[in-house]
Amino acid sequence: MRRFIAVLVIAILMGTSIPRANADVEEVILQVDGLACPFCAYGLEKKMMPIKGVKSYDVDMGEGKVYLGLDKDAKLDLEAFRKGVKEAGFTLRDVYLHAKGTIEKTDAGFALVLGPGGDRLLLFEKEAMGKKYHQGDDPKNLGLGQELARQLEEHTGSKKEVRIEGPVHEHEGLPAGLAVEKIETLG
């Protein structure tokens, strides 16, 4: 069993949602419905391993989780994961990841800046996933709790790397966000 669950991020570059981000993503965890036997896992593996940048595949059928390791300089392509899961005959329920980078304050809120390409991932509290802005209201009102806002502010512009774990949350008309379940300062 894995010791923790990670979060997946979708990049925000210049305020625009883009489907790919530079991967300082240590692990992607896909919650997949319908994995019931070794043949199911093998069928899904045949769809995941050819995705550019995927270097490892592991599955926990009991939990319905697929663990993907990415090459260091790989692009994180969420659409390719969705497509692969669907083509294998399963349903992708959630995406989690472990990602590292630096914190920056943008017009849209706090962001995790990944890798040398500088792709940005919008950060928010997991509890904010159900708030109205996810239904089209102001994306600047991310509902950060005082403690998380303080931690993010403390890291803003410091160039110290952080590791963030949590689920990716997507919504219509707005960029996807990364819910911060765990944040850790590196080095």
Q: Would you give an account of this structure?
A:
The protein has 187 residues and is α+β, with helices and mostly antiparallel strands. It has 2 domains: 20-96, 2-Layer Sandwich (Alpha-Beta Plaits); 100-185, no CATH class. 17% of the residues lie in helices and 44% in strands. It is built from 3 helices and 13 strands. The protein has helices at residues 38-48, 78-87, 146-155, and strands at 11-13, 16-17, 20-22, 25-33, 54-60, 65-70, 75-77, 91-106, 109-114, 119-125, 162-171, 174-180, 182-185. The strands form 2 sheets. Strands 8-9-10-12-11 form a 5-stranded mixed beta barrel. A two-stranded antiparallel ribbon has the order 3-7. The longest helix is centred in the first third of the chain and has 11 residues, at 38-48. It is elongated, with a radius of gyration of 16 Å. Mean pLDDT is 77; it is low at 1-23 and 133-139.
Topology summary:
Blueprint: E1 11-13, E2 16-17, E3 20-22, E4 25-33, H1 38-48, E5 54-60, E6 65-70, E7 75-77, H2 78-87, E8 91-106, E9 109-114, E10 119-125, H3 146-155, E11 162-171, E12 174-180, E13 182-185
Parallel strand pairs: 10-12
Antiparallel strand pairs: 1-2, 1-10, 3-7, 4-6, 4-8, 5-6, 8-9, 8-11, 9-10, 11-12, 11-13
What is this entry, summarized?
The protein is an alpha+beta fold and 187 residues long.
Entry keywords:
187 residues, alpha+beta, Alpha-Beta Plaits, 5-stranded mixed barrel, two-stranded antiparallel ribbon, 3 helices, 13 strands, disordered N terminus
Quickly count the helices.
3
- How do the strands of the widest beta sheet line up side by side? 8-9-10-12-11
Largest sheet: number of strands, sense, barrel closure: 5 strands, mixed, barrel
What form results from the Cα inertia axes?
Answer: elongated
Distance between the amino and carboxyl termini: 27 Å
Mean pLDDT: 77
The level of helicity is: 10-25%
User: Unreliable stretches, pLDDT < 50, 5 or more residues?
Assistant: 1-23, 133-139
Radius of gyration from the alpha-carbon trace, in angstroms: 16 Å
- Number-wise, the strands total 13
Quickly give the structural class: alpha+beta
Q: Beta-strand level of the residues, as a percent range?
A: 35-45%
| Count of all domains | 2
